[in-house]
Amino acid sequence: MPTNASLTIRRLVTFSGVMASLVPVWSATAQQRGRQPQPAAAPTPAIPPSWYAQLKYRYIGPEGNRVSSVAGVAADRMTYYAGAASGGIFKSTDGGIHWTPIFDDQPVSSIGALAVAPSDPNVVWAGTGEPFIRSNISVGWGVFKSTDAGKTWIKMGLDHTGRVARIAIDPGNPEVVYLCAEGHNYGPQPDRGVFRTADGGKAWEKVLFVDENTGCSDLVMDPDNPRILFAGTWQVEIHTWGRESGGPGSGVYRSADGGATWKALEGNGLPKKPWGKVAVAMSKANSSRVYALIEVGDGVPWRGQETQHGRLWRSDDGGSNWTMMTADRQVAGRTHYYNRMAVLPDDPDEA
């Protein structure tokens, strides 16, 4: 059995061996500390700096948030307007290469709808308030009008409509304008539905009002007959804890007398109610064809509704009869936010 003395001697020997092995390392490190650092050779650049000198920045867009509305001038393929969800209006006169802010002096920045009068490109309408429901959505402050192609703007009322989803202008008379108001959507209110002016916005008449819980989610004018209009309505209410979409107020409405009277379209191929958000669209290539993008249960019970499928419906006789075209959820996913559609003016089959 080893004594305490032998253990002590063994430990000392081991420690001495370790120290001896470290001495060369310390010596080398000490020698390196005494030397002056040598500068590393500069690497040869892969791309000569002269190449970078030839590059120039190119302006590609005006804003950093969502574009909620756009409009163009039919007779001028280079002029466009873009409305931001919370960034005002921008205008391009060179086909989108450069954009200029034209609405920054106004007291509201959220744009929901833009429209240019077909018979007078100097007349531009802007409906404020983003109609695409999100937790950070911006509420608007009525409707504005420009008679000098966006250089100056005049407030034209409808202060409490909350969010404007669409604006339609009579192609032969720029004084006749229809406005689709969704409402502020945080509870019941009377200032929602379809409004009409016949004097360029001096006076407005509420021509389609379903109820205080339902607003207008979309509006389209027959490109061959401005007296015919289709409106989509949406019953919706937003709470801090969620959103209630759908109810008996949602639907598709048709007017054949310039908005004086409206007829609710039901049955004849359309899904059973209740519905949620509704979008509508038409094409000048075939104004007898009408599209309706409808939020329904999609195969599961929804707000007391029996199981049913569908997303997109089509009518080929001006809204009298309808056919379900697809039940693909990708056509209308996140309906509160993305439910909008359009049809090419020269091809009624491409939507």
Task: Give the gist of this structure.
With about 350 residues, the chain is mainly beta. The protein has three helices and 21 strands.
Molecular structure report:
The protein is mainly beta and 351 residues long. The relative contact order is 0.07. It is globular. The protein is built from three helices and 21 strands. The strands form five sheets. Strands 13, 14, 15, 16 and 17 form a five-stranded antiparallel beta sheet that branches. The chain has a four-stranded antiparallel beta sheet with strand order 1-2-3-4, with no helix packed on it. Strands 5-6-7-8 form a four-stranded antiparallel beta sheet, with no helix packed on it.
Low-confidence stretches: 1-33
Shape: globular
Report the end-to-end length measured between terminal Cα atoms.
96 Å
Number of helices: 3
Kindly state the mean pLDDT as a whole number? Answer: 84
As a whole number of angstroms, the C-alpha radius of gyration is: 33 Å
Kindly state the number of beta strands.
Answer: 21
* Range of strand content: 25-35%
Architecture blueprint of SSEs:
Elements: H1 4-34, H2 49-53, E1 67-73, E2 76-84, E3 89-92, E4 100-101, E5 111-116, E6 124-128, E7 143-146, E8 154-155, E9 164-169, E10 177-181, E11 193-197, E12 205-208, E13 214-221, E14 229-239, E15 242-245, E16 251-255, E17 263-265, E18 278-283, E19 286-294, E20 312-315, E21 323-326, H3 335-338
Antiparallel strand pairs: 1-2, 2-3, 3-4, 5-6, 6-7, 7-8, 9-10, 10-11, 11-12, 13-14, 14-15, 14-16, 16-17, 18-19, 19-20, 20-21
